[in-house]
Amino acid sequence: MITGPTVAPIGDLSNSAGPTAGTISVELEEMPAIADGLDAVSRTCADRTMPILGIATETRLFLGINGRAQQAAAICAVLAADLGMSAAKFGVTAATVRAAHSSYLQVENTVAGWFESMGIAKDGKLPDGRSTRGHFRGLIAGEPGEATYLLKLTIPELGYFSASRTLPYSPLVAGILFGFTAYMDAKWNPEIARQRAFDRLASMFGIPRGLARKALDGGLFSIAKSGIDTFLGAKAHNIRTASADEYGIAAHRGEKSQLSIGTSSERLMAAAKAQDQEFERSRQNPSTAERSAVLVTVMYEAGHEGDPAHALYVVSVPGTNFNSWGGSIIDVPGAEREALGKDTMENPAYQMVLQALRDAGAHQGARVYMEGFSQGAMIAYNMANSTEVAQEINIVGVYAQGAPLRGLPAKRRDFAVDYVEGDGDWVPDSAVNPLAQIFGGTWSPDERDTVITVNNPEHHGENYHEALKREGHSGKVPGGMRAAMEGKEYALGEQKVTSASSLPDGLPPALRVGITIKRTEVYGGAALASGTVPGPLGIAELADEKPGERLGRAKRGIEDTVPAVIEGVKKTLPRPEPTPQEKPQAPEPAWPETPVPPMPKVPLLQGYNPQNIPPAIKMPADLSRPEPAPIKMPARIEAEGQLPPASLIPPDILPKPADLHTHIEKAVTQPIIDQLQLPTVGSALKNPPIFGVGQGGDYDSSESLIPALPNLKPAPMLPPKSIDPGFLASTPPENIDPGFRAPGPPEDLTPIEEREPLMV
Predict the structure, then answer these.
(1) Which of these, 726, 725, 730, 724, lies nearest to 590 by C-alpha position?
(2) Taking 90 as the threshold, does the pLDDT of residue 313 lie above it?
(3) What are phi and psi of 740, to 5 degrees?
(4) Is 660 exposed, middle or buried (0-12, 13-18, 19+ CB in 10 A)?
């Protein structure tokens, strides 16, 4: 349907877009008739104009003295003028409709002729059987899908034209452009793509189209498409399935088994072994493309051995073969392709896995558990996430080991991921997609998934297997494995190895290497364009791996030391005093305790802490008599307030300036005071403390309970032998200095009375 001109009713022609305006949808062929009708209306209006104007004139002439007659004459004059304007507008509208009809018809004929000349249409009809005019009119009317369909038909023409113009300057670029255009044309327009490609190729080389069609007979199209698939690595070649016995893999058929992390790790090592054998075997012949391989293990429900309807198929996909640059499917370009997260069937790895399952007897909708290491895990995850793959098999779970899954798209299907990564392994952190991660568009573990981290910086299957066994994870059955087994008991069936390549045999080695390099560039650029970038943590871990994992070992050493440090600190912290029930009962002393007389309250020296004075120091009653040695006070003691009068302080108790050589923070510290040797009565200045060699340890002094930390020395502890015997053995009462028992008040000291502060 064609939307024709907008026609407004008479009386509102001044505003055709107003509320009373209407839109008339008509066929293109009806527009001339509509224009004729508008001309007829225009002439009718014009014919009525003069009679009505005459009536107005005669009324005004013969009945001019009557007021109502004058009013009627005026109305007739206005009506005549409106009819004249309407006649003119209808005439213009009729001309517009004819012009639109002519334009529409000319454009239709041009488009139809162009489609016919290009070979896109035949007998006025496009490949879907609908006429060119019908599609064009639908495009104008806004029918859904018309624009997309016509664009898919016309865009390849631009590619063919560009290739023809590029051919004289760069045949290589022209060939690549032509091949890519032919490939896209085959995907969009399979009905006409082959014939169109022949015609455009004939035009490029000046060959008559009829001769080219007869000579090639469609063979060139197949060659071009196959060449594009080969260049992009979209097709698997040389698919072959053999028994696992040929690779030295023992199947243990009939043995009761279940899925576990340990068995999955062992199967992945077996798959890697088979792939290495295929790779070495293919390199013996220079014309043979390098191979990849996967392992399929069939597990039957107990009691239904050999029945495919009760089978669980386990596919083990090994990691990247970094040494392959000549046709291996699981190679460096394959890893970049998987990083894109594209899960279509145009992937040789998917084709290899599906063919391996068919050869193992899997039917449509068979239950499959995927296992993968590194790139193999990426293949497993993308296949489980693919709706196209789900049309053939049902992947119920994925075991991913050492793979960068956090850079892949989020889940679109219901399956569980059993994820294992090594602390310090650079591959799990090698690829990230920050933009997708912000919006939650990448995989992140959910309640269905299980994440296990092991201490393994080496990106190798054997190292992962040893780490899992060492840390006690081998026997675990995570959620994905439990969902796959459904609580049933299984017995092992046959095991088969399927190998394939992404390049056909017969190509020169240099050409295979060149194609692999180009694939690396193509898929690497596509990954960067999609937002997938190298992970900074993976780069740092890879750089650390080269010099021997020094930073990684230091990090793990610190992590291992932290619990010991915490335990040591707990042992050094002061513990609460025991309850009276827990305190040991001390024996009664042999002599009565002497009460300590009250001391006069005098103000202390400002800036001096009496708590730092060692206990049990006997002060002489008579401060005027000479002492064995002067008391050395720490240096740099500054008074916080006004010092007491000099008459209250004996002159001998103040330190001499020449003796002030040490700082208070160095002379009086809590750890040293706590470990000081307690002197006997009257011997405070005679026996200085002596620090022994033993510095902490357990009860037998063989091992320290406090870990050694950088720049932290343990507090000195005294050997038992250095303690004064006089302190260990109590002094009899008769040997105690009488002045110490009941010291008299100093003669020159006047106690200061304590007073309540005055209230202001």
Answers:
(1) 730
(2) yes
(3) -80, -35
(4) middle
Instruction: For 3-22, write each residue's pLDDT tens digit.
Output: 444 443 434 444 444 444 45
48 Cβ contact partners less than 8 Å away, ≥ 6 residues apart: 80, 83
The answer to whether the Cα torsion of 56, 60, 63, 65 is positive or negative is positive
CA distance 651 to 635: 18
Angle formed at CA 275 by CA 494 and CA 356, multiple of 5 degrees: 45
Backbone angle region of 254, left / alpha / beta, with phi > 0 → left and psi within -120 to 50 → alpha: left
Q: Is the pLDDT score of 62 beyond 70?
A: yes
Asked if the model's pLDDT at residue 709 lies above 80, the reply is: no
3-state secondary structure of 724: coil
- Burial environment of residue 119 by CB neighbours within 10 A (0 to 12, 13 to 18, 19 or more): middle
C-alpha distance from residue 554 to each of 424, 550, 559 (Å): 11, 6, 9
**Over the stretch 580-606, which tens digit does the pLDDT of each residue have?**
554 555 555 444 545 545 555 544 444
Q: Retrieve residue 382's tokens.
A: 């993308």
User: Which tokens go with 433?
Assistant: 């997609």
Burial class of residue 93, CB neighbours in 10 A (0-12, 13-18, 19+)? buried
Q: What is the pLDDT of residue 393?
A: 94
Instruction: Render 76-103 in DSSP notation, one character per residue.
Output: HHHHHHHHHHHHHHHHHHHHHHHHHHHH
